[in-house]
Amino acid sequence: xxxxxxxxxxxxxxxxxxxxxxxxxxxxxxxxxxxxxxxxxxxxxxxxxxxxxxxxxxxxxxxxxxxxxxxxxxxxxxxxxxxxxxxxxxxxxxxx
Length: 96
Ligand SMILES: [Zn+2]
Hints:
elongated, binds zinc ion, mainly alpha
């Protein structure tokens, strides 16, 4: 049995009980312990909400724009996404 991948990233070892297909890691199957499993499920729900928020805020990537304008759009999208993730994570008690 493999160790929890998420715990391992923090130098901890935990028995895995769940296998999860991660949306944010290219649908890779990852082995997780119970507590990381619930944390990640919760987080991925937030990711889809933050995604929707950034899409609504920035609209679609404009077609036929210059490189500069595309970069500006990407920057704005990333900013909106990360800002919303931060806000939702706090609201849902994932971070303090
Ligand atoms: Zn874990």
